[in-house]
Design the sequence.
């Protein structure tokens, strides 16, 4: 008996559904109904239900009550390495782009000041951007930097990699960061910018980035679409 034939039926059907209807498909593409899948693969609806349930649990599919089951589509895995959005998207074989939503010199809030080691009200440059992959909106980003470290930053092109700009123009060697991750939902105005439903799930990452000497260079809050990004990291014992 082969290992494949010895596997539970639902696992074999899960692999077949994945190959036929999920892998490489665009987001929001519907898969066939449970009854149709059962007939196609010659198994019970209960087996199909369990196989599809596993794909849903793994984040490959999502179900809408009364409407059907749909592909999540190709996503981007966000690692815990110090990579820029531009680098992460290109590593996944996609083309990054940005829409500048706003740039201004503002007084640092208590939260931003604490993260940057500044006094509340100290001047920071705030950059708000909509980040895209292959033209599709992926996340909202708000970066704050101490004005004293990046004079005239607003006069540069801020639609590309900010980390590359900081290195090339200001000589900032960004070497490590502290990150905090939490699950949130998008407010209606944020959802509209991203083209998703209000209160859709998001992955919010707060990152304080340090230079090689330990100086605080940037505080960034990024809200990633939960249907497009996953968090990937390794642990050791």
Sequence:
């Amino acid at each position: 008996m082969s290992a494949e034939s010895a596997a539970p039926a639902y696992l074999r059907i899960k692999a077949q559904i994945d190959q036929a209807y999920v892998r490489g498909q665009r987001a929001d593409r519907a898969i066939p109904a449970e009854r149709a899948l059962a007939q196609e693969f010659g198994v019970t609806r209960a087996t199909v239900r369990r196989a599809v349930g596993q794909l849903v649990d793994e984040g490959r599919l999502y179900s809408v009550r009364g409407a059907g089951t749909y592909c999540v589509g190709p996503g981007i895995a966000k690692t815990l390495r110090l990579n820029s959005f531009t680098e992460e998207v290109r590593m996944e074989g996609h083309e990054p782009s940005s829409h500048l939503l706003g740039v201004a010199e503002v007084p640092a809030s208590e939260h931003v000041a604490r993260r940057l080691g500044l006094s509340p009200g100290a001047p920071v440059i705030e950059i708000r951007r909509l980040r895209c992959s292959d033209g599709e909106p992926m996340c909202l980003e708000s970066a704050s930097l101490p004005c004293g470290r990046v004079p005239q930053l607003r006069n540069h092109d801020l639609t590309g990699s900010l980390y590359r700009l900081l290195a090339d123009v200001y000589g900032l060697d960004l070497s490590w960061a502290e990150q905090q991750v939490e699950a949130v939902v998008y407010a209606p105005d944020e959802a509209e910018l991203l083209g998703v439903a209000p209160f859709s799930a998001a992955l919010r990452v707060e990152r304080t980035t340090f230079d090689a000497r330990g100086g605080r260079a940037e505080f960034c809050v990024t809200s990633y679409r939960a249907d497009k990004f996953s968090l990937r990291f390794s642990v050791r014992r």
Notes: The chain has a mean pLDDT of 86. The CA atoms of residues 79 and 185 lie 21 Å apart. The two ends are 37 Å apart (CA to CA). Helices lie at 3-6, 9-22, 34-41, 45-57, 85-91, 110-116, 162-170, 188-194.
